[in-house]
Design brief:
CATH architecture: 2-Layer Sandwich
Largest sheet: 6 strands, mixed
Order of helices and strands: EEHHEEEEEHEHEEHEH
Distance between the termini: 24 Å
Helix content: 25-40%
CATH class: Alpha Beta
Structural class: alpha/beta
Number of domains: 1
Radius of gyration: 17 Å
Shape: globular
Number of strands: 11
CATH superfamily: lpxc deacetylase, domain 2
CATH topology: lpxc deacetylase, domain 1
Length: about 210
């Protein structure tokens, strides 16, 4: 969520991830509701929309948050660290939901526009079957279905074909990029994440801003 005064917008991470993945630093977005549309549960449609609108190269220099020494955050089972990396932004993400082998594993990527589009943008959001059932019983998640949300039951997703064999961990990288985008400028460093979510991602983002934001 982002907020300014009385105005607030929710479910922003997939749109912001698309902006990050395409290297967009300046844009104007009009929205007439409190939530960014969920689309297909990934950032693929946002990527397509941005590309269709057109991308221009700015003549001005964009500031960068460059990690110059190791830093880390830890919240419960979630752990994240960042260290210097001269080649740009690299992310190693490890996901582990006990008893659900589909939601386990590690993915590593040097984030570039082509690799983001090919490897990350299409990965959909997910939930464990038990958690999804509890949310439905509580009247939440009404916009979710088996096509825009991977409902994971052990080693399979229910009623949908996977876009990648490791789609859940790739989606976690998608979310992380969206959460880092709130910094307002690109990050240069090597980020390692273990079971992080939005809260820990944003804690790392605020630490990066504090330590290296100038």
């Amino acid at each position: 969520m982002i907020k300014h005064g009385a105005a607030e917008i929710h479910t922003i991470e997939h749109l912001l991830s698309a902006l990050a993945g395409l290297g967009i630093t300046d844009c104007a977005i009009d929205i007439d509701g409190i939530e960014v549309p969920g689309m297909d549960g990934s950032s693929r449609d946002f990527v397509t929309g941005i590309q269709t609108a057109g991308i221009e190269t700015l003549s001005s220099t964009v500031p960068v948050i460059a990690v110059s020494r190791p830093v880390s955050v830890e919240e419960g089972l979630s752990k994240m660290s960042a260290q210097p990396y001269a080649a740009g932004l690299k992310i190693d993400y490890t996901l582990h939901y006990a008893g659900n082998t589909l939601a386990q594993g590690t993915y590593s990527i040097d984030v570039t526009e082509p690799r983001y589009i090919q490897e990350i943008a299409s990965a959909r959001t997910f939930a464990m079957k038990k958690d999804a059932e509890q949310m439905r019983a509580a009247g939440l998640g009404k916009g979710a279905n088996f096509q825009n949300t991977l409902i994971i039951d052990g080693d399979k997703a229910l009623e949908t074909d996977l876009r990648f064999s490791d789609e859940p961990v790739r989606h976690k990288i998608l979310d992380l990029l969206g959460d880092l985008y709130i910094l307002g400028c690109p990050v240069q460093g090597h980020i390692t994440a273990h079971c992080s979510g939005h809260r820990t991602n944003r804690s790392l983002a605020m630490l990066l801003k504090k330590e290296f934001g100038g």
